[in-house]
Task: inverse folding
């Protein structure tokens, strides 16, 4: 038996419809009736397997009457359920809102960590993966796969921490690794006042489209590097706006169009 893509789509759509129906009626009286109808369906299938034609006819009749009863008896509950569904706009809108919340949370945690490290003049090197994968860089460090949090980022770079000398790699919603080694840039025109972290950040940007944040250990100055371009003296608000745009641009075109109004409002 060959399974076609349309069969998979059919199963997924039906699963989603059943799930939404259950969510709509789970807190209403109709939920109990649906449980009863589900049991009737099971007995109906058993009667067919056992060739109990009269029993099957009776069960089918009860099931038909039960569907009418749902509409008549539970009309108020069903109306409220459909009104609730209508007020929820659309599933896609909910997904977009969730994405926006994830972006805002991720941005806030990173910005808070960088601002704290800057105030304390603790050196830091944070690499945010973009389109080009960084699996080879991740392998040079310690795998974490931890949720993004400002406290964790700060602790990773705290002096005398086992992983404070390397780079932290962030991908999607995770801090995937820490203590990673980055390729150093061979650019001889780089200012002498920029240290090894900045040269490593530039080297990483020359080999990928990653977005890199550097905090100077000597001055606390925040620097961002992407596509071999260095921006220094970055404040928290600028970093926040840049990260919001970076994370939004990493999603598909439809998501960018829907969220563009929200981003403009934040900027």
Result:
């Amino acid at each position: 038996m060959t399974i076609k893509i349309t069969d998979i789509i059919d199963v997924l759509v039906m699963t989603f419809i059943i799930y939404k129906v259950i969510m709509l009626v789970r807190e209403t009286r109709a939920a109990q009736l649906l449980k009863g109808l589900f049991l009737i369906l099971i007995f109906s299938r058993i009667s067919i397997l056992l060739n109990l034609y009269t029993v099957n006819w009776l069960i089918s009749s009860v099931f038909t009457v039960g569907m009418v009863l749902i509409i008549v008896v539970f009309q108020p509950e069903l109306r409220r359920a459909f009104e609730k569904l209508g007020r929820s706009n659309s599933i896609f809108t909910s997904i977009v809102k969730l994405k926006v919340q994830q972006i805002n949370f991720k941005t806030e945690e990173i910005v808070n960590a960088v601002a704290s490290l800057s105030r304390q003049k603790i050196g830091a090197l944070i690499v945010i993966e973009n389109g080009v994968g960084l699996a080879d860089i991740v392998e040079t460090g310690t795998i974490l796969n931890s949720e993004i949090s400002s406290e964790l980022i700060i602790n990773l770079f705290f002096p005398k921490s086992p992983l404070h000398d390397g780079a932290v790699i962030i991908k999607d919603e995770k801090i995937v690794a820490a203590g990673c080694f980055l390729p150093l840039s061979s650019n001889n025109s780089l200012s002498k006042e920029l240290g090894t972290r900045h040269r490593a950040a530039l080297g990483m940007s020359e080999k990928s489209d990653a977005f890199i944040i550097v905090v100077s250990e000597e001055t606390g100055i925040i620097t961002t590097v992407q596509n071999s371009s260095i921006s220094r003296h970055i404040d928290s608000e600028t970093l926040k706006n840049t990260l919001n745009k970076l994370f939004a641009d990493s999603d598909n075109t439809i998501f960018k169009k829907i969220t563009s109004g929200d981003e403009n409002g934040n900027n």
